Amino acid sequence: MLGPVMNLFGFGKRSFGSLTEQEILGLAISQEEDDARIYGMYSDALRDKYPASAKVFDEMAAEEGEHRRMLIEMHRSRFGEHIPLVRRENVRGFIDRRPVWLVQHLDLDIIRREAMVMEAGARRFYLQAAKKTSDAGIRKLLGDLAEAERSHISLAHRLGLTHLPADARAEEDETARRMFVLQYVQPGLIGLMDGSVSTLAPLFATAFATHNTWDTFLVGLAASIGAGISMGLAEGLSDDGELSGRGSPWIRGLASGGMTMIGGLGHALPYLISNFWTATAVAVLLVIVELWAISWIRYKYMDTPFWRAALQIVLGGALVFLTGILIGSA
Q: What are the residue boundaries of the Rubrerythrin diiron-binding domain, all occurrences included (predicted)?
């Protein structure tokens, strides 16, 4: 029961700074193994319709295999045959990857963006890892691998797709956009979803149990502030930004906590209206607006088809909303 909660706050995971040089090599080896498998699955998914793009991913998988071989040889020369089992999920700071490689009929543009994010993350990892090592040979190898991953970031050009960065400045703009999504949009969206949905049940349960608008407002206010503090702490403590490149945990925590409070207060404020049914009608209208806004943000920034996002968010919100009404009317 405590495992998921501990992982949410980063407990039970090692900090990157606490890893030994041997463990850093073990982590790098496991990352290269995972990346090679993912590129292989991308290649298999694209082979029938996009054979040229599939070939690029075959080459990238082979390159990751070569990186793995180099890392294993370095480990063997420095520490012997036994490689410690350290994976990204055991270390704080890594971004959880969406398992898009398991989705059938993947969109080529989504695969490209996911691959670019993977490689940018791998380069950032090697740069940070090189700073943590004092062994000259290991440091050189990690630096060389960082440069190799940097060359991979031109994957967009190698795939020959349309609407891709045409020059270095455009690539920098694309990178800046991804970082904006990771640092502000993603934590803010999670907070907005939590605040807009999780506070529905206590708010409307209180409303229909008491028919007292002031009491309902106080419950909504308390739920929104409490949820905002909780989400802000969870986001800030989950990742220091060193490996993920997601920036300051304070900024992400404020974005997540602030949007959580906004999401909850949006449908609590109407209960400052003294007439119960008028306040409830306005609150319900605002809930509908909030849920559709969340669906649009997921569509705009998170590569989720709009109607799928709308179905997931609106259906979930409707269930929580009805739960509150049923409990309050019991």
A: 23-158
**195-229 pLDDT, tens digit each:** 888 888 888 999 899 989 999 999 989 988 888 88
Q: Are 128 and 243 in contact (CB under 8 A)?
A: yes
SS3 content of the chain, % helix, strand, coil (to 5): 80, 0, 20
**Nearest CA among 88, 75, 109 for reference residue 34:** 88
HSE-up of 299 (CA within 13 Å, CB side)?
15
Residue 8 is predicted with a pLDDT of 44
Q: Is the dihedral of CA 232, 236, 239, 244 positive or negative?
A: positive
| Amino acid of residue 268 | A
Could you tell me which CATH class the domain 2-164 is placed in? mainly alpha
Q: Tokens in use for 164? A: 């891709």
Q: Where in the chain is the domain with CATH 1.20.1260.10?
A: 2-164
Q: How does pLDDT run across 228-269, given as a tens digit for each residue? A: 888 888 877 776 666 666 667 788 888 888 888 988 888 899
CA 75 to chain centre: 31
| Identity of the residue numbered 214 | W
Of 3, 8, 58, nearest to 36 by C-alpha is: 58
Q: pLDDT at residue 105 above 60?
A: yes
Residue 280 structure tokens: 């409830």
CA distance to 192, 229, 235, 296, per residue, from 200 (Å): 12, 17, 22, 20
